[in-house]
Specification:
The chain is an alpha/beta fold and 520 residues long. The protein has a domain of 280 residues: Alpha-Beta Complex (Spore Coat Polysaccharide Biosynthesis Protein SpsA, Chain A), CATH 3.90.550. The protein has a 10-stranded mixed β-sheet, sandwiched between helices. Strands 1-2 form a two-stranded antiparallel sheet. Helix 5 packs parallel to helix 6. The N and C termini lie far apart (74 Å). The relative contact order is 0.10.
Length: 520
């Protein structure tokens, strides 16, 4: 009997010990969980979602408080101000944030001068860095992973600003304006100012295609309030890939090194100089990459354009538009099947220094497309793009880092016919960018013979338009000369000028047709 009583007490005691241990363990896990939450809030631990995670998993991976994406962007923007909270922060953008005091949503712009910002589906593009604080390429793999994922999500989401204000769909008679931008803020300000003067702009959709992020450019995009706007980002830009291909890998060959020395040194691309023996420079190759990716993405990879057979107009941040820009573009688009059915493009700009539109305000001509004459403000529809897209391999292997010179070469080398364009005689698009890839002057710089000043150039073109108001908004367009387009001059034997000899550039470029390329 005593033995049974002793055993019973032993079992009860053991159960009490186990129960105590379980309670202690539960309490420890609870405290540890709270510590981990606080640890995360203070920014010492910040797990970022992968594009391969489920939506639910990604939502909680960002923060256990389930903060909104825009709140995350704001929290990650200013590393100097938020270093105690987030160790892996990135530059700030214009974004919608919830204000605790009022509970309403408002748009805040940080790290940028105050300006008019559209609050509808506010800009959500904190993608890379500023030049002053290069936070990319510093070995922070977590941060780079986030940036790549963010750009990927931005491109597939296609967030449309101002849709509530302009809810009409993109119909076949409207134009999609594809604006390629970098970081030239002053030029882009003038572009947007001219966009506001364009009649019927509210029917269009502006797709701003970036290859560089800055808060100022983001603020300017958010200020566009006269039409619907979508932002896309070239995903292989030099801010994300600052120290490896397609950026400038430190183990790549220097431009001027000989092939013999390059092979001895063991630099990565020793076998792939261009036709002149020079090696690639990423700052020059990126523009061609961006342009070809952008065209492929807009025509073939955006939901917006899946059923759109209208015209995509190609513009850049340093262009300035006339008030009748879209009016005349519509006249030309309607007339093209009748007066130049074989033309692939319509054109709204040229570099002729014409001061009087009298007698030519409604004139158009059918000619072969040339890069140095018609590379601004030209448009093609899906039929024209389908022809150009067939030349993907030739475009991507042509040894010239200029997209427009490469495009010009396709007529002879690929299509076996000129690329025709029906273009205005009196320009409705003006180039104000006297500073850029092919100009050594800096914005605002003055030399003995040249002033690199956007405002003075805009003033000149504005006076031209003001003096020719009587000849704007014509009722129809009139063809000058023949509608037969032929090869002339240098188009008969297109030459390339190098800078595009690396097979890595070729492969990446060719992949844009089907989005098949993957970079680590």
């Amino acid at each position: 009997m005593n033995t049974i009583r002793w055993r019973t007490r032993a079992v009860v005691g053991l159960l009490m010990v186990c129960l105590t241990l379980l309670c202690t363990l539960a309490l420890f896990r609870s405290v540890a969980h709270e510590d981990r939450l606080e640890f995360t809030r203070k920014g010492k631990l910040h797990r970022l979602p992968s594009v391969h995670q489920s939506e639910e998993t990604a939502k909680h991976a960002i923060d256990v408080k389930t903060e909104t994406r825009s709140q995350l962007v704001e929290r990650l923007v200013e590393p100097e101000q938020h270093a105690e909270r987030v160790q892996t922060s990135i530059p700030k953008t214009a974004t919608a944030v919830e204000t605790e005091q009022t509970g309403r949503q408002e748009t805040k712009v940080v790290s940028a001068k105050p300006g008019k910002v559209n609050s509808h589906q506010g800009s959500d593009t904190a993608v890379v860095t500023s030049k002053e604080n290069n936070y990319v390429g510093n070995g922070d793999e977590v941060k780079l992973h986030f940036l790549k994922d963010h750009v990927f999500k931005l491109n597939i989401e296609e967030k449309m600003m101002n849709f509530e204000k302009f809810p009409s769909p993109l119909d076949e008679d409207a134009f999609l304006l594809a604006v390629q931008v970098h970081d030239r803020k002053e030029y882009f300000e003038h572009f947007i100012a001219s966009l506001r003067t364009v009649r019927n702009i509210e029917r269009s959709v502006v797709v701003v295609s970036h290859d560089y992020y800055s808060p100022e450019m983001d603020r300017l995009v958010a200020s566009i309030d006269v039409c619907k706007v979508i932002q896309i980002f070239y995903p292989y830009n030099l801010q994300i890939y600052s120290d490896k291909f397609p950026g400038q890998d430190p183990n790549d060959c220097p431009r001027e090194i000989s092939r013999e020395l390059a092979k001895k040194s063991g630099c990565k691309n020793a076998d792939y100089p261009d036709q002149f023996g020079h090696y690639r420079e990423a700052k020059f190759t990126m523009t061609k990459h961006h342009w070809w990716w952008k065209v492929n993405h807009i025509f073939d990879h955006m939901r917006l354009t899946q059923r759109f057979n209208g015209y995509v107009m190609f513009l850049e941040e340093d262009h300035f538009l006339a008030p009748d820009f879209l009016h005349v573009a519509k006249l030309i688009a309607d007339a093209k099947p009748r007066i130049c059915p074989n033309c692939q493009f319509i054109g709204m700009g040229n570099y002729d220094k014409i001061t009087s539109y009298q007698g030519i305000g409604n004139a158009v001509k059918a000619v072969a497309w040339e890069s140095g004459k018609f590379n601004m403000g030209f448009a093609m529809n899906r039929q024209g793009w389908n022809e150009i897209r067939k030349c993907n391999t030739m475009f991507c292997n042509f040894d010239d880092y200029n997209w427009d010179w490469t495009l010009q070469s396709l007529g002879k080398r690929c299509l076996n016919k000129p690329i025709g364009i029906l273009v205005v005689r009196a320009s409705r698009v003006f180039h104000i960018g006297q500073c850029g890839v092919h100009h050594k002057q800096k914005l605002g710089a003055v030399t003995s013979s040249f002033q690199c000043n956007a405002a003075s150039t805009v003033s000149l073109h504005s006076r031209t338009l003001k003096n020719n108001e009587l000849y704007l908004f014509p009722g129809s367009v009139v063809l000058i000369g023949s509608s037969v387009v032929t090869f002339t001059g240098r188009l008969t034997n297109p030459q390339s000028y190098g800078g595009w000899g690396d097979v890595r550039d070729h492969k990446l470029c060719e992949s844009y047709v089907n989005n098949s390329y993957t970079l680590s």
